[in-house]
Write a structure and sequence with these properties.
The complex is a heterodimer of chains A (315) and B (635). The radius of gyration of chain A is 20 Å and the shape is globular. Chain A has 315 residues and is mainly β. Chain A has one domain: Outer membrane protein transport protein (OMPP1/FadL/TodX) (Porin), CATH 2.40.160. Helices cover 6% and strands 55% of the residues of chain A. Chain A is built from four helices and 14 strands. In chain B, a hairpin with a 5-residue loop joins strand 45 and strand 46. Chain B has 635 residues and is an all-beta fold. Helix content of chain B is 2%, strand content 52%. Chain B has one helix and 49 strands. The chains are: A mainly beta (315), B mainly beta (635). The interface between A and B is large, with 55 and 53 residues.
């Protein structure tokens, strides 16, 4: 499967900025941001819909997720996801991703190329609608010990810069296996699709390894660790690390998250990420809140807040 | 002197009686120093030596002498001496004391003589101890005559070689003194001098001294010094030459001569005007008076002005070889000149660079009443006004001439003449900001005002836009903006504005914008262009960095580049993707610009979307200042 996916990561683009739809690379959820965007192996629910659709199969509850991100440079980002595993085995998910900045200052020049002042504002926006599914591969390929799963997400998106609009279509193909002892291996080909405004999409293949251990001190304590390595032609290969330690207090769980992202070249940005999570599973409605704050050098802070609700899946 | 001696002898006989034959006998010797004694109150010493020739001793001896014709200055010798009046006569006396037979005594008298006089005759009174004084003796030898220089003849004459006694100005007049000291006194006349007064108004041409003498002037005196004139000298002359002044008429008056001389001891012994020899000569002369007039006092540039010169001879003698000329004032060009005499015409010299001069010549100008013509002459010349004024002139007319003796007379001149040029005169100013930030606009106000004396036509303002700027209001394609104002009345003004904008950001560069205003006068003559004396300096400064045009569309942006301007040297610009990947880092600021053509480090076109940028530039206090932002890119 990886051998099949690897060539798909190849493309014409080779340098930063040469790919269109860079927004597709942005981490969608607060948990993803807090864990260094390392979710290919262990993410589920809304995280899986954004990072590795094969993870949809790990969604336990009917999950609705909403994350608002205060991106750098006064840009707002919204992400809404729905994920659900059906009783007969496959899992589905759908998402809406929206990034918007309406406060871009329009600057003018005259016919000599001299500065001609400001002329109001213009907007930059990116909207993506995605739908995905994941299936358990054991009935198809065996390998019961590895518990393989695969998923695909199809994503339709549009980009607007001022009054220029372009539409695109892409797909993510993901695979996840669980070789045992808590280890999870994942791989995903992201953003395979047509050109956008004449430029290739930011296609990349991400290989990941994760480790999940629970219970630990208590029945509710859990530790998740993951390392991802994306391969893209327009970016240098970098490693992303993420970890989450969840402490259970009965039906309430507090999660402490941290991570590290290589490949961020903004000065004064260490790449370390931090976040907190809260879960309450005490009632018929499980819900949780997440917060992530990441310093982003001269461009300020990236902060994300998320609300997640879980329902018992239909029987 | 002899009478007094007889009195003394009788007095001695009565005192001595029959014993006088047994009395001592005396001899008296005299000597004078210096020899001969000089008159004129020059002191000399008279020495008297008395000798007792025996046969008996004299118990007391007195010596006395009259000093009536001399000045007594003092005495010495003997036991005592002094001066007394005896019987109304001054005498000097000496008490010699006892004088033994065969012995002698000398006494001294210091006197001064006036002029000549005969020698002294002293006498001796003695006593031989036998009774009252009983004898006397007269002078036996010695003595001298006083000498002095006294001229016997001093004759001065004044000679004139050109009758009648009427001269023209400049002609030499000779005054001559002939003197003769032959047959003079008894001594040399020292430092003999003659002096005379230089006639008022006359110019001294020459002074001739006598052979071996000298001559000089002190104030209005001329002094000849002939030195020492020996006894029985020959006749000699001294001469003074003067010229009459340059006036219509005058009189040359020569006063009486004076003279003086001294004797050898420096005492003035002769002086005074020997003869009354004053002389007066009448002088007549030619003269010229110039009256210059102008036909107007205000003229437009390009117009004509006529000067008229009238000359007359107010004196009583003819003016000859007359040249009249006038240097044209700057700002005029000669057009024509006329003269009222067919035989004479004006001539113009010069050029526009070195100036012009118009001149006329005239053989003679006779004085009124002579019966000859002409007695007056009139010249006029017309000039074109080429200067802009505000005034032209002053200039004067001059005349050179001679009198009938051929002597050049003082140059005559007219009064100065000036006229005002009636022209429009523009006053022009330009005001505006002293500095403007790069890439921004600046508005200047240009005001022209007619402060002249005539209406300005064809008023035009021209402004040359400095480098790095272009006009935006009004919009012109070149670097010169002009406004045709048209007519501007006296005192009227017009204001226009010009807005310019920098075409590039050039920091700390100083440029100068210059403007000027020009006009024509009513004759179509171009007036002097007036430039802005208040040149405005545009000092462009760095403003906050600018990033434009955004959103950035490489296909539409000027030059296909995104501009980062107002950057200090050493600044860098780094562009990032939204995920923080470095797209490119720009450096090498030129003219405070960095530009980005929308490519990445691999020189590939970057895709549409949102990008972040960070400007790092040197901070004024050291370190670096960072400015971040974002922009959209459109493909």
């Amino acid at each position: 499967m990886f051998a099949m996916l690897l060539p798909m990561a190849a493309g014409a683009a080779s340098g930063a900025g040469s790919s269109a739809g860079e927004e597709l690379r942005l981490a969608r959820t607060a948990r993803d941001l807090a864990m260094g965007d390392a979710q290919v192996a262990t993410g589920s629910g809304g995280d899986a819909l954004a990072s590795n659709p094969a993870g949809l199969l790990d969604t336990k509850l009917l999950t609705l997720h909403l994350t608002h991100v205060f991106q750098a440079a006064e840009t707002q980002q919204e992400y809404f996801a729905w994920a659900q595993r059906l009783p007969f085995g496959p899992a589905f998910g759908a998402g809406l991703f929206w990034l918007y900045n309406g406060g871009m200052t329009r600057t003018m020049e005259d016919t000599w190329g001299a500065y001609a002042g400001e002329a109001g504002k213009y907007a930059v926006g990116f909207l993506a609608v995605s739908a995905g599914c994941a299936i358990d591969l054991k009935p198809l390929v065996g390998l019961d010990l590895l518990r393989p799963s695969a998923g695909v997400v199809v994503r339709a998106f549009g980009q607007q810069v001022d009054d220029s609009r372009d539409l695109g279509l892409s797909a993510d193909l993901g695979l996840r296996i669980r070789p045992g002892l808590g280890f999870v291996l994942g791989g995903v080909l992201q953003n395979a699709g047509r050109k956008l405004a004449g430029a290739d999409l930011p296609r990349q293949f991400v290989g990941a390894v994760g480790w999940e251990m629970a219970p630990l001190a208590t029945e509710a304590d859990a530790l998740t660790v993951e390392a991802d390595m994306p391969f893209a032609l327009d970016k240098d290969t970098a490693v992303r690390f993420g970890a989450e330690y969840a402490i259970g207090f009965g039906a309430v769980t507090l999660a402490f998250r941290g991570g590290m992202m290589q490949g961020v070249e903004v000065p004064d940005v260490s790449g370390f990420t931090f976040g907190l999570g809260f879960r309450n599973t005490g009632g018929s409605l499980a819900w949780g809140l997440d917060y992530t704050g990441i310093p982003f050098g001269p461009f300020g802070y990236i902060q994300a807040i998320a609300l997640t609700a879980g329902f018992a899946p239909p029987q | 002197m002899m009478e007094f001696r007889g009195i003394l002898a009788a007095f001695a006989l009565v005192l001595g009686g029959a014993d006088a034959l047994a009395q001592p006998s005396f001899t008296i010797d005299q000597s004078v120093s210096p020899t001969p004694p000089i008159g004129g109150e020059c002191p000399f010493s008279w020495d008297i030596t008395v000798t007792n020739n025996g046969p008996t001793d004299a118990t007391s001896v007195w010596v006395c002498d009259t000093i009536q014709a001399q000045v007594y200055l003092g005495c010495s010798g003997g036991l005592s001496c002094g001066r007394d009046i005896v019987m109304g006569n001054p005498i000097a006396w000496w008490d010699v004391g006892p004088l033994a037979a065969g012995s002698s005594a000398t006494v001294h008298l210091l006197v001064a003589a006036y002029y000549t006089c005969s020698s002294f005759e002293p006498m001796v009174i003695f006593d031989d101890g036998t009774g009252p004084p009983n004898g006397y003796a007269g002078a036996l030898s010695g003595g001298a005559e006083v000498v002095n220089p006294v001229p016997s003849t001093f004759d001065a004459t004044i000679n004139k070689a050109f009758p009648p006694d009427m001269y023209v100005s400049g002609e030499p007049v000779k005054f001559q003194v002939t003197y003769n000291l032959s047959g003079a006194g008894t001594d040399t006349a020292a430092n003999f001098r003659i002096w005379d007064t230089i006639p008022a108004g006359a110019n001294v041409l020459r002074m001739d001294p006598a052979p071996g003498g000298t001559v000089w002037t002190v104030g209005n005196l001329v002094i000849w010094n002939m030195g020492d004139i020996p006894i029985a000298s020959t006749e000699n002359t001294v001469t003074l030459w003067v010229a009459a002044p340059n006036v219509c008429s005058a009189a040359i008056v020569n006063s009486d001569f004076s003279y003086a001389s001294e004797n050898r001891c420096g005492k003035t012994v002769i002086s005074g005007p020997l003869q009354l020899k004053s002389k007066q000569y009448a002088v007549t002369n030619a003269g010229i008076t110039i009256n210059k007039s102008i036909d107007r006092t205000v003229a437009p540039q390009g117009g004509m002005v006529t000067y008229t010169i009238d000359i007359t001879n107010p004196c009583e003698s003819s003016a000859l070889n007359i040249t009249v000329w006038d240097s044209l004032p700057a700002g005029t060009v000669p057009c024509a000149s006329t003269f009222d005499s067919a035989s004479n015409s004006g001539t113009v010299w010069g050029d526009s660079v070195n100036g012009y001069m118009v001149a006329w010549s005239l053989d003679a100008l006779y004085h009124v009443g002579s019966g000859w013509t002409p007695t007056t002459a009139t010249m006029d010349f017309t000039v074109s006004v080429s200067g802009s004024g505000p005034t032209v002139g002053p200039n004067r007319a001059y005349a050179d001439f001679t009198n009938k003796g051929g002597y050049w007379q003082s140059r005559a001149s007219s009064g100065p003449r000036t006229f005002t040029v009636m022209n429009p005169f523009l006053q022009f100013s330009m005001t505006g900001p002293s500095s403007v930030a790069g890439g921004e606009s600046a508005t200047f106000t240009l005001t022209v005002k007619n402060v002249g004396t005539d209406t300005a036509f064809g008023v035009r303002i021209v402004d040359t836009i400095p480098a790095y700027f272009y006009a935006v209001d009004p919009v012109v394609s070149g670097s010169v903006v002009s406004w045709d104002i048209g007519t501007l009345d006296i005192g009227a003004s017009v204001t226009v504005t010009l807005t310019i904008k920098s075409v590039r950001q050039e920091a700390n560069r100083t440029v100068t914008m210059q403007a000027s205003a020009s006009s024509l006068n009513g004759n179509g003559i171009a007036m002097a262009t007036v430039k802005d004396s208040d040149t405005v300096v545009l000092e462009m400064k760095l403003a906050e960095p600018k990033v434009y045009p955004t959103p950035f569309n490489p296909a539409k942006a000027v030059g296909g580049v995104l501009k980062f301007t107002e950057l200090p040297d050493g600044s860098t610009v780094t562009i990032y993707t939204l995920t923080g990947a470095e797209v490119i880092k720009l450096s090498g600021v030129k003219n405070h610009w960095l530009v980005w053509p929308g490519i990445n480090k691999e020189k590939e076109q970057v895709a549409a979307g949102m990008y972040l940028y960070m400007i790092e530039m040197p901070a004024s206090g050291g370190g670096k200042k960072k400015i971040e932002g974002r922009f959209g890119l459109v493909r």
